[in-house]
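Worked example 2:
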Amino acid sequence: MRYCGKACAKAVLTGLREFGIQINLIVPIMKKYFLFGFLIVIIMFACKKEKTEEPVTIQLNFTSLVADNDTILPGTTTNITANATGEGLVYTWTSTGGGNIIGSGTKISYATTPCMYGNYEVQCEVKDKAGSSQSKAITIRVQ
């Protein structure tokens, strides 16, 4: 390979200038198309709808109703706990024949009066946000 000297370098530079003039005409057009294509790609990814998973709903399942003591003395209390699974659970407590329900939610106290004797039923109804409900009852013996 031989070095061509000043004349060769001048010819290369002149050729580049001539080629550069052509590039100067093409570059603005290419920039517009490149910018347009780039914007299309950005819009496609920005507007891509993400997949949404269906929410998993937990069905109501009222598993148990348990008293700390199911036999108590008159004038005393016992704690009663409802165990249930589901979404948006609401607990409603009732008793038959007397006694007082103290508290709300999953755990209440059932209080008897000094003159109460016999068997009393405490019932709990559980409703979920879908409107389903289940009930359980427990008998408390007062003696």
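The mean pLDDT is 83. The radius of gyration is 41 Å.
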